[in-house]
Design brief:
Blueprint: E1 5-10, E2 13-18, E3 21-26, H1 29-43, E4 54-58, E5 61-65, E6 77-78, E7 90-91, E8 111-114, H2 121-135, E9 162-175, E10 187-190, E11 193-196, E12 215-219, H3 224-227, E13 232-237, E14 243-252, E15 258-261, H4 262-267, E16 276-283
Parallel strand pairs: 9-15, 12-14
Antiparallel strand pairs: 1-2, 2-3, 4-5, 5-8, 6-7, 9-16, 10-11, 12-15, 13-14, 13-16
């Protein structure tokens, strides 16, 4: 394997390492052993896109996960193309796969760890994902064409409290549907749902778009897209009170409010699209 995870006892704790670099520390040997085993199962798949090691939200908790995004498996991801040449505008991986928490202990492993006992689990999930991303060697170049895996931008507003209300009722959209990007052309059809294809692999802050990650695009109206770029915001479904904290990484069209990744949208009960169905707050 190009990558290897292990754990060792040091100064009262167990350190999980990837390629010799510490990525996680715990007082539990069982937890350390489990995380190392999970990582090695993921590393055993030479087709896995390790750029998809991301924070996410599964089973009511913030987690770190590596979805089954693979190359050399006959998958093609099509990006938005306004020309007649859309079939040639693709990336040779299945980028827009939904998040599945799979602890199979084989090459289909997706689960890495669940954040527990934290007042800022979204911050911890991002930091641990970044530690692992920094330590691993990719199996192939990323969608951005890089031979290394970039760390995600860590926002500066990492408090567990809310600083201000951006909008008490904002228009909601979502993007990164599992069927989005799997067919050529300007739209892809999944059952009764038709969605516009993604314009390209990179979002406005330069990161590769990860629909399993907890990120969002904010509208260009009132300069929300620049004012809140690389900030943590809390999004609450007004119909059920469920909330998720996401990073703003992309730009949504004028008057669109906020667009959540498909996973973030699912995590708060799928608030109604195209309507003022969410509250947006800026974290401190």
């Amino acid at each position: 394997m190009a990558n290897n995870a292990s754990y060792a006892y040091s100064n009262g704790n167990y350190n999980v390492t990837v390629n010799g670099m510490t990525v996680y520390t715990t007082s539990s040997s069982t937890t350390a052993s489990t995380i190392a085993q999970r990582l090695n199962n993921i590393f055993s798949d030479p087709n896995r896109d390790l750029d998809f090691i991301t924070p996410s939200f599964v089973n009511g908790s913030y987690v770190v996960i590596c979805p089954l995004v693979r190359k050399n498996q006959g998958h093609k991801t099509y990006f938005y193309d306004s020309t007649s040449n859309a079939a040639n505008n693709y990336y040779d991986e299945k980028l827009y796969e939904n998040t599945y928490w799979n602890d199979s202990r084989d090459i289909n492993q997706t689960a890495i760890l669940t954040i527990t006992n934290s007042s800022r689990p979204w911050v911890d999930a991002l930091q641990i994902a970044n530690n692992i991303r920094y330590a691993v060697t990719p199996n192939f170049n990323t969608a951005a064409g890089k031979s290394y895996i970039s760390r995600f931008t860590m926002p500066s507003n990492t408090s567990s409290s809310v600083a201000s209300v951006i909008s008490s009722a904002a228009i909601l959209q979502y993007y990164g549907h599992p069927c989005q990007g799997t067919q050529p052309g300007t739209t892809s059809t999944c059952g009764t749902l038709t969605v516009q294809n993604i314009w390209g692999a990179a979002v406005s802050n330069g990161e590769v778009f990860h629909p399993c990650d907890l990120t969002a695009a904010m509208t260009s109206t009132n300069s929300w897209n620049t004012t809140y770029r690389n900030k943590f915001v809390k999004v609450t479904n007004l119909s059920n009170g469920q909330s998720i904290v996401v990073r703003v990484t992309d730009t949504a069209p004028a008057n669109q409010g906020i667009e959540l990744t498909y996973r973030a949208w699912q995590s708060i009960g799928q608030p109604a699209p195209n309507s003022k169905s969410v509250k947006i707050e800026l974290m401190s």
